[in-house]
Amino acid sequence: MSAPATAPIRELPRTARPQSVLFMCGQNCVRSPMAAALARHLFGRSLYVGSAGVMKGEVDPFVAATLDEIGLDNRRHRPQTLEELEENEGLAFDLVITLSPDAHHRAIELTRTNAIDIEYWPTADPTLVSGNREQRLDAYRAVRDELEMRIRTRFRA
């Protein structure tokens, strides 16, 4: 008996705007919650937005600080894994945007059993930057600004 075929990864045409998007990274504590907060701010209720990680991380205070600088409050965010998200909300997303290699590999596994489109946006991990507080905040600001630009471009805000 042959192995079941895997569903091909479909990419939405860049002009198509999905109804729902899930941002995923390695841990749901920096990049994916930052992207989700930005997308929610930019699109309100016109786009359903979620975030999850391959693993569950710890809340990162630099994320709250850099989002607060632009008037966004992310203090209610609690990191969750993809499995926790699936248990609580299901995986009814049109598009998964992965921000790290491990999240991308995990998302590809989802296409075996779900009709989900995937886009990979390689995004630097600001937690790897060392230095004083301001240098570290600058790394988070750079990620925030890059994500905002990519979200605006992709979803035409």
From TrEMBL:
Give the highest taxon in the source lineage: Bacteria
| Transmembrane residue ranges | none
Gene3D superfamilies named among the record's database cross-references: 3.40.50.2300
Which part of the chain is the Phosphotyrosine protein phosphatase I domain? 19-157
UniProt keywords, alphabetically: Arsenical resistance
Question: By what name is this protein known?
Answer: Low molecular weight phosphatase family protein
Source organism: Ancylobacter crimeensis
